[in-house]
Amino acid sequence: MIDSCAKLIVKIDSANFVYRVFAILGLVFALGFTVSAFAEEPRLATFHETATILVDQRISNNVTASVSLQTTSLHEFQIPAELDQKIRNNTDIVAIVITNENQCVLGVQEDICILVNIKRIEGEGGIQTAQQKAKTAGDAIIGDINDFFGFDTKFHSVFIHYDDKANQELGTQGQVSGRGTVSAVYTADFQNTDFMFNRVSSALIPTQIRNLGGFYDIAQTLSKDDASRMTFTILPQGPISVMQLKVSENYPGMARQITTVEPLKYLKTNEVKKSDYYKVGFFPLNSIVQVVILPQDESAEASVSSVIGTTIKNNQTIPADLETSGWFFNSNSGKKIEAMYLFGKEFSADGNDLKITFGEEPSIPVNVGLQEIAILVGIGAAAAGAVVYYLKGIRAK
User: Fold this and answer.
1) Which 8-state DSSP code applies to residue 332?
2) N or C end: fewer C-beta atoms under 10 angstroms in the chain?
3) φ, ψ (nearest 5 deg) of residue 116
């Protein structure tokens, strides 16, 4: 059983997993994706939308659905430039997290939280030094964060994260929360997700983008459920900041009884449509549906209705075709099953398109082995660009 601190680690830890996912599909651009002379050239925008279903049969026995909207552009997520500069100029800060999770850290119950996270360097002073360093970093920016979002959070405590179990299970390195991370915690009275999502998204996202639908509409639907939770994260990365707004809903105790994952059931929609933001060109990597399964049987394999073939470039496995819709498998069997649905030239996907069966004889074998791409592709870099921003969405109850 994961303790209360690990609940948040599993729920919002994303920083390094982000890059692994970016790497898989960003390589399509970095290594040069070949299209026919008559095909429309694939393009990559800074704004990304991702729907994720995580089936955890090993840690929490939960299924979690989440929708993430992410960008590195201050035009698409309108954080004040001064605040962005303050965060990036403080090299101690590794993440800012705003959430209404039930327990953001041990000792905080039924409040909203703003966490200002720094990385604790071994041998650099004791616990008191780390706590003071985190509080100093937090106090320098909390007023700006409160003013922009209309919050009234006050300093609560400094929390040092020690547990790394969830990070090890999921293959993340714990930049947002996990062993070695220190959080300055600021709290205010609880706000339900519907209210909080609308407050944060209205401040962040221009009306023009919100009115273009897509995964934003699914996030808004999920936010209306009392059991849903919202997290907004800023990850400073040198000259840019990675910003993500995520809504997730947990389905406790359901994971071990299923062998078929139906994403639309958990996303509470009849189909997934891409945002009209992408109608001006061919953006095959900006809208992704992802399924991650931690199966009880580590030899389990997955089967789907359509699979995108793979090709090897520079010893890396990447999708062979961006114009056809279907599933691209990052890993299948072994410790976890990890697959991404690419829309190709299509603008929507239904339940049959997105269904994944695992733990049974696969109807369509997917022989991709256990290789996982670990090249870190810089988000916003011209050669590679960003693809998917995925915050792990599981939390033990």
Assistant:
1) -
2) N
3) -105, 110
> In DSSP terms, which residues pair with 339 in a beta bridge?
291, 329
Q: Which residues contact 104 (CB under 8 A, 6 or more apart)?
A: 8, 97, 111, 113, 115, 185, 187
Q: Find the helix or strand (DSSP H, E) in which 274 lies.
A: none
Question: What are the start-end ranges of the E strands in the chain?
Answer: 48-56, 63-71, 93-99, 111-119, 154-160, 181-189, 228-237, 240-251, 260-261, 272-273, 287-294, 302-304, 310-313, 316-319, 326-331, 337-342, 348-349, 356-358
**How do residues 129-181 score in pLDDT, each as one tens digit?**
889 999 999 999 999 999 999 999 999 999 987 765 544 444 444 455 556 78
Pairwise CA distance, residues 136 & 23, whole Å: 34
Q: How far is CA 153 from CA 37, 187, 271, in A?
A: 56, 5, 38
Q: Can you tell me the distance from the alpha carbon of 203 to that of 76, in angstroms, rounded to the nearest whole number?
A: 11
| CB-based contact 68:246 (threshold 8 Å) | yes
